[in-house]
Amino acid sequence: MDDASVISSVPPVGSSWPAVGLADALGRVLADPGAPAHDLRLLRDGGENYPAWLAAIRGARERIDFENFIVADDETGRVFAEALMERARAGVRVRFLYDWLGSAARSSRGYRRALREAGVAVRVYGPLRPSRPHWFVRDHRKLLTVDGTRGFVSGLCVSDHWTGRDGVAPWRDTGIALAGPAVAGLDAAFAETWAEAEGDDDPPLPENAATPAHGGEVHVGDFSPFAPPDAVPVRIAHGRPGDRRLYRLDLLALATARSRAFLTDSYFLPTRAYREALLDAARCGVDVRLLVPGANDVPTLPAFVRTAYRELIEGGVRVYEWTGPMLHAKTAVFDGRLSRVGSTNLNPASWFGNYELDVVVDDPGFGAAMEAMFAQDLAGATEIVLADKRGAPALPRPVSLDARSGSLARRFAQGRWRESAASIGRVVVSAIAQRKPLSRLEAASAATLAAMAAVAAVAVALWPGILGFTVSVTLGWIALALFIRLVRGRRRVRLAEQRLAAQTRRLLDRLRRPD
């Protein structure tokens, strides 16, 4: 039986609402009690996402909030610009937020000038500033909300890459559309990054704009009077710099999976703890499958990703590589009911460093659609197997959740959740010591890493000042940023003291006046 039929034959798990224990755990991890959403749709690639986005934009009556990591000044980007500008000219409040690093080389001042001249408020997150050395913290969210009633979250940026160009197939990606009270959480997410960005003043809403009846204060189960009968529970997962909510979510989902965990990721560079979580789930009988790109828009990345393959495959995780031009989706589905769709990759930059945004859905109907999409993707992928073994590793028989919990407890008690050497080091060491035969992929990874190390070594040998110059510039930048912050901080303190003194004088003057 092939992978698609195996997945499609597995029945949905449980009822339409989550178990109380899991619901409580999700609420604590995400700091979000959840809200009902309706008209929930799973959207595949640019061919389904972009038309839905544009239809919502063109139908807007009050406000549009648009946020994306990359907005390119190409044919696709100009189509979106025209739609946004038309609505702004019609009196709709349109706010446009882009990331500086993601869009700087792909957009233009003329593109943004045209938006502003049409009445669109434009802000940029994280422009290069002497006072901001942490330029690696990015706004990686992909979000659109319209009139506070309809929202879209995805892994898609706005570029011809997602529509196809020059005979190249479009990138593979996934998005989600929703309506109802849960959109309030998306509006709150946009307000968060909009406040952190630089640019135009916040434009006013149209005079006749309505305030949502629920005011954004909704909880799981609060259906009356505004939730339709087809509503499903969703949570909006906000990822913030220094925040570990999405990381804890991914670990929780693996720890509670009973039968299967299907993961799709475009830039897979997990922490050691996350790799251990994958392996623990597989050892306990969970069917863990990971789909990653075979070819990547970051050409050197596959060499690093593939260093983890041997350990995962030997531990029972099944690994697949997409054979298309680029797999950019970031999704997961557990036990056919708990699903995650959004911008978060399985790597430290997304988990700990960026602004990210995902929608978490606990519903067997949506989970079935997610699993069907995953099965469709596996039909266009190649499973990676070890060179010294025939076929995929045998998966252990499923065990009960109680047995698995005991296994986890014993592993913690025995100190077996250890931090070991990185997978990259294991590949290089095994290549040198010949401790085990390397597969072709591992050999290719070792060759790529060796070439990169050789180039770095030659560069330092020929131009030794490069290393010192780089360190000097970095330290100088940090020192300048701290000095600027100190000056600005003292200035703010002085201004606050002056305002307080002025208020005190005015108060005393009023007290001295005779009645």
UniProtKB/TrEMBL annotation:
GO biological process: cardiolipin biosynthetic process
Transmembrane segments: 469-487
A Pfam short name: PLDc_2
Swiss-Prot/TrEMBL keywords: Membrane, Secreted, Transmembrane, Transmembrane helix
Protein localization: Secreted
Top-level taxon of the source organism: Bacteria
Major subcellular location class: secreted
GO CC aspect terms: extracellular region
PLD phosphodiesterase domain: residues covered: 323-350
Task of the protein: Could be a virulence factor.
Protein name per its UniProtKB record: Phospholipase D
Species annotation: Salinarimonas ramus
